[in-house]
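During the reporting period the student researcher (J.K.) took over the structure-prediction task from the postdoctoral fellow and processed the backlog of single-chain submissions. One of the processed entries is reproduced below for the supervisory committee.
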Amino acid sequence: MKSLNELFSLQNKTALVTGGAGYLGTAISETLAELGANVIIASRNQEKNSQKSLELNEKYPGIKVTAIELDLLDQESISECVKKVDALYGGLDILINNAWSGNKNSFESISDEDWLYDIEMSLTSVFRLIKAALPLLKRNKGVILNISSMYGHVAPDYRIYDGVKLTNPPSYGAAKAGVIQFTKYLASFLSPNDIRVNCLSPGAFPHEATQENIEFMEKLAAKCPLNRIGRPEELKGAVALLCSDASSYMTGQNICVDGGWAIW
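J.K. obtained the following structure tokens:
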């Protein structure tokens, strides 16, 4: 029987994290590095990718962290990223779809252009990257972790959002709900290839700039039983579980890290 240390170890594994230098992405990348995986941090901001890669290489000298520029709205960029991963590491064991960008919108303010952008960024890009990386994942019997959101399975409470600047757009939840269902679909259809696919849905983890709005933070905190917002490091345990052999009998699951937001 494997020990817990063996089950959670990611030594000699290679992981690709989209948005891996962002607010939540940094905690995800750090988790993988800490468990011994080689990490590829990929997003459009190559300067940010490179800086985070340098930091993690210095902090965890036994692994290799690489920065790759990736535009998830560009099919050619996705294909080139996967080719680089294969050339540098000879395969891929873990794929984490975490990247996101978009505008704040209410249902009244959102434009057709904003809606299409959000669906393309948050859902279609996940499909395209998994499709491109599938040959590498098949070869290594890999793991896919999709980052969704609590708003993929519950609705935002309109009473806590004051104005368009803070409002969660309808396109975001719609796309994230699609990610949860797509995760379940892939868990079924990729199981013959011994590929596990799970989903992680963070609750209220507002960016630092948003946290400056104290009144809004109090409203967010009051929405969950733990009466506070989440800290990025509080995703590390779930990421460690879902990316390692500690979850070898888990697939098609959506794990919520939301302070209990959805229970009442």
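The committee noted the following: Residues 112-140 form the longest helix (29 residues).
J.K. will present the remaining backlog at the next meeting.
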